[in-house]
Amino acid sequence: MDFFKVANGSLLFVLVAAGIAYVMVQCVLFLRMALKRGRELGIDKKVISDTIKSSAVFTIAPSIAVALGLAAMAPSLGIPWPWFRLSVIGSVSYELMAANMASSALGFAKLGDAAAAGAEPFGAIMFAMTGGLAGAIILDIVFIKKVDSLAVKLKAKAGDFGTVAVGVLFFAVLAVFVVPFFGQGMVAVATFFTSIALTLILAVVAKRYRQAWLGNFILAFSLILSMCSAVLWTQLVK
Amino acid sequence: MENREQYFNRINRFGRVSFAIFFALIFAIPTIVCAVYDIFPSLATVLKATMGLFLILTPIAISEIVSFVPLLGSGASYLTFETGNVSNIKLPCAMNALKLAGVQPASDEGEVLSTISVAVSSIVTTAVILITALLLAPLAPVFANPSVRIATANVLPALFGALMVSFMTSGDAGAVVVKGQWKAIILPMLVVALVHYLIFPIKGWEGVTILVLLPITILGARFLYKKGQIRVVPKEPKA
């Protein structure tokens, strides 16, 4: 049987759509629980609505990069499977790598070679990409509650320093992602600094001209504009 | 009104049960497809193909749980790990939402706002990918456009530049402000620079590096706090 007859088959489309629908229902239920809790805690409605708006707008630009991942994976794995993996559980940065690793373990030099060998490798690739995450999911189910509970206790125990410690945790993430940009060529560095400059400029504009709404969208606007600036920097570096 | 513990237990119960169902569901998809088309691979083939990925992704999961759960809280963590794209979308999105609201992670308000942020973000990402999947053929020229490729290839420098500013310029933490917080990023950046450029490139090891860096960052901040370089002061009322 042909690889793509299965990979682009209506059965897989239906199953994937059902899987994604399940996760969307979950999102809505989590959202409802959080909104109700927010009301109980007396969180200002404006804070909630600003959170919703800024999160929605912020997400669009990086989602386009994920969508591009779908376009990159579809020629090798069909549309529904990458659609599923990139919508839930997967990450654009390692999905293609995961598919390649699975096909290579099956003895194919390239992912495209697996497609030429009929439908059987597609089944093995789907199982491998799913099974590879089994340990991660089990750990999530078991440890999220424990780690969150411990973090809240430690923060409370540490008093004022607990506030500092929680505030600087994200610095570890920033350091790990930011420092390597300096070795990725001029375009990455220029884009990074453009983003810094745009964020500062937009923050000053929002403050000076008292445009409170702009404050919620600074990250989204800086992100989109500095992604566009990368095109300009690429032309200049050529 | 539920107290903190009741809400915490309820959201974790829901998260665990719904995540467990999801776990069964993701295995059901390949199982049904292979059964219908009669293309079941042998167990040995599946194990051979799975093992490499399992050994890479499981330690990454450990580091993500330890590093990101204290920042996201329980509700947002279940959704984040289930919907993926953690460090490029969900975590920055939630952190930005907390920053804008002047709320700290590991607090009641932080738990609520990060859950809202990640839920909305997941719905938007799914919508964008759905539109792309439906319009893949007509959108093909757009995706093939070199400018679009360059722009999307640079999403991380663009994202982290903006995040860096918002996290270093504001120490807003609810009723208090953390002054001089930015100084705490110097040590982790130096450590990463030293390791990445002089010892071994951390690409592919980001999760493990974050795990190692967390205690270093906290200890560095502790030192600065003790020396009075980082201070926690009450928030001044707005004029």
Give a summary of the structure in a few sentences:
Chain A is mostly helical. Chain A has helices at residues 3-7, 10-41, 45-77, 80-87, 95-105, 111-116, 120-131, 134-157, 160-178, 186-208, 212-215, 218-237. Chain A has twelve helices and no strands.
For the structure shown, list the relevant keywords.
heterodimer, A: 238 residues, mainly alpha, 83% helix, globular, B: 239 residues, three-stranded antiparallel beta sheet, 10 helices
Summed over residues and divided by their number, the pLDDT of chain B gives a mean of: 89
Q: Radius of gyration of chain A over alpha carbons? A: 22 Å
Percent in helix of chain B: over 70%
Distance between the termini of chain B: 34 Å
Order of helices and strands of chain B: HHHHHHHHEEHHE
Shape of chain A, please? globular
Number of helices of chain A: 12
* Biggest β-sheet description of chain A: none
Helix content of chain A: over 70%
Largest interface: A-B, 150 and 158 residues
The quaternary organization reads as heterodimer
> In one word, what is the shape of chain B?
globular
| Arithmetic mean pLDDT of chain A | 90
The largest β sheet of chain B comes out as: 3 strands, antiparallel
Strand content of chain B: under 5%
List the helices and strands and how they pair.
The complex is a heterodimer of chains A (238) and B (239).
Chain A: H1 3-7, H2 10-41, H3 45-77, H4 80-87, H5 95-105, H6 111-116, H7 120-131, H8 134-157, H9 160-178, H10 186-208, H11 212-215, H12 218-237
Helix pairs in contact in A: 2-4, 3-4, 3-12, 5-7, 8-9, 10-12
Chain B: H1 4-37, H2 43-72, H3 74-83, H4 86-101, H5 108-134, H6 136-144, H7 146-153, H8 155-169, E1 172-173, E2 176-179, H9 186-199, H10 206-226, E3 231-234
Antiparallel strand pairs in B: 1-2, 2-3
Provide an overview of this structure.
The complex is a heterodimer of chains A (238) and B (239). With 238 residues, chain A is mostly helical. In chain A, 83% of the residues lie in helices and 0% in strands. The longest helix of chain A is centred in the N-terminal third of the chain and has 33 residues, at 45-77. Chain A is globular. The model of chain A has no long low-confidence stretch (mean pLDDT 90). Chain B is mainly α. Helices cover 77% and strands 4% of the residues of chain B. In chain B, a hairpin with a 2-residue loop joins strand 1 and strand 2 (176-179). Chain B starts with a helix and ends in a 5-residue tail after the last strand. The mean pLDDT of chain B is 89. The chains are: A mainly alpha (238), B mainly alpha (239). The interface between A and B is large, with 150 and 158 residues.
